[in-house]
Amino acid sequence: MSSGRTVDAMVMIMRTNGCAWAKKGGCTMCGYASASLSGVTSEDLMWQLEQASKKYAGEPFVKIYTSGSFLDGNEIPKDVRDAIFERFGSAERILFESRPEFITKEVLGTLPKNVTIALGLESSDPEILKVSIKKGFTPEESKKAGMMIKKAGLTVRTYLLLKPLYLNERDAIEDAVSSVRFASEFSDEISINPVNVQKFTLIERIWKKGDYRPPWLWSLIEVLSRCAGKVNARLMSSPSGGGTQRGAHNCGECDSGVLKAIERFSFSQNIKDLNADTCRCRGTWSLLMETETMLGTASDVMRSVDNELAIGK
Ligand code: SF4
Ligand SMILES: [Zn+2]
Questions:
Q1: What sign does the dihedral 182-107-102-47 (CA atoms) show?
Q2: What is the Å distance from ligand 1's center to 134 Cα?
Q3: pLDDT tens readout for residues 57-110
Q4: Which residue among 23, 30, 142 has the greatest number of ligand 1 atoms within 8 angstroms of its CB, and so is best to mutate?
Q5: Most C-beta atoms within 10 A of its C-beta, which of 63, 204, 265, 310?
């Protein structure tokens, strides 16, 4: 999707040396920490580019994923970066991700104007970013990078994480709503990513013990509804693992309908599209939020209750 139009996109996934932060332990929800490589050379990367070029059919939107930061010279050296821009120079838009520490005025000056940089801000709360996510930078650093990108005439997409570790459902909603407000000051697009529990992560260990539940899709609907029309940035969400136990989910019966409503809204930006058919689990979700707040817990209350019942049988 680009400027509110549906356009074809090409996705190029590059195997690079991986995220520098992941090598130091990484973020609590990120599976890349266990999958980092080393010794990937410029020649390897050029070969990957060549393979992707053969498949490129002139799609207007090119997304490049590197499992880290495209602007980190250790992942994508400058000569490879330039070759990529030359190859996809005719695209309307090239999207890639970068941590803020690699975004400098000098680097921005070398990028073509059809670039969108995705920033993984995750949360605007410094404590949540530090303790729950272990992001390794502050919200202010992300904001500064966003402002610089805008000043350089490029576009910003910001990713926010819905329901980081240790937050209960209600707090997660409030965190995401405040983060949208914060990010809208420097973002053209804001994508809300509900946690998808990835293998070999801290969040997976805690989830397996029953002390974490990925967010309800109702929570995502609430965040989008509360922010729709109130910020200039386009709001979107495409929950990976949506409707599964590891991803954002409801009761199982209404999940696909709710996911479709989120998809429709992400395209139209029309709040009416968020009106998914309601389901009886909406009441459970509301009650659960009250219970969690009353008990002061962020663990998976429903699973604990189910376990207790099973033991009592
Ligand atoms: S979430 Fe991004 S910054 Fe964090 S470890 Fe993974 S790739 Fe690196
Ligand atoms: Zn339901």
A1: positive
A2: 10
A3: 999 999 999 989 999 999 999 999 999 999 998 999 999 999 999 999 999 999
A4: 30
A5: 265
